[in-house]
Amino acid sequence: MQSSNSKKEQDSTHAMGRGMLFGVWTMAVVLLSYGMYLWQEAKKHPNSMNANGTIEVVLEEGRNHHYYAYGKINAQDVLFFVDTGASNVSIPEKLAVKLGLKKGRPSLAITANGTVQVYSTQLSTLQIGNILLHDIQASINPGMQGEQILLGMSALKHVDFRREGGQLILRQ
């Protein structure tokens, strides 16, 4: 028969063991979640390399088979959504204001959401990885929400691009 003190010590040891097990599982979930976050973020950052005098940037396919990349417009950090179906680089108006872009002439653009009025603008520089483009035509779209910029053909026509497996390869 166990004494009262021995039973209390055993109960205390079991409670401490359960608490430690809970802590280990919690830490494992937190680390796994953080690892998944880092993996998703790494997909947005292009890998640049020089091969045979060319610059190549490899974008990893993201959710829903889309390609995203962090880059720069006029030396300011932005997030691009690659859209080969878009004629121009298209920038939400609120983000254009933050980037200090000036509205040019108005025109109409046909988008997935219908016809909208946009304003022309000129980007001094547009950069993804080590690919640097100059004097790129773009449009400011007052109807676009969020912070993503559509990377359309006004920029993509200056690079060769191809899709291989789950990667989009841009080459300058």
Description of the structure:
The chain has helices at about 5-45, 95-100, 155; strands at about 45-50, 55-60, 70-75, 75-80, 90, 105-110, 115-130, 130-140, 150, 160-165, 165-170. It has about 170 residues and is of the alpha+beta class. The chain has two domains: about 1-45; about 45-170, Cathepsin D, subunit A, domain 1. The strands form two sheets. Strands 3, 4, 5, 6, 7, 8 and 9 form a seven-stranded mixed sheet that branches. Strand 1 and strand 2 form a beta hairpin. The longest helix is centred in the N-terminal third of the chain and has 41 residues, at about 5-45. The radius of gyration is 25 Å and the shape is elongated. The termini are far apart. The model has no long low-confidence stretch (mean pLDDT about 85).
Give the gist of this structure.
The protein is of the alpha+beta class and 172 residues long. The chain has helices at residues 4-44, 93-99, 153-156; strands spanning 47-51, 54-60, 68-73, 76-82, 89-92, 106-111, 114-128, 131-141, 148-151, 160-164, 167-171.
Helix/strand layout:
Elements: H1 4-44, E1 47-51, E2 54-60, E3 68-73, E4 76-82, E5 89-92, H2 93-99, E6 106-111, E7 114-128, E8 131-141, E9 148-151, H3 153-156, E10 160-164, E11 167-171
Parallel strand pairs: 4-9, 5-8
Antiparallel strand pairs: 1-2, 2-11, 3-4, 3-7, 6-7, 7-8, 10-11
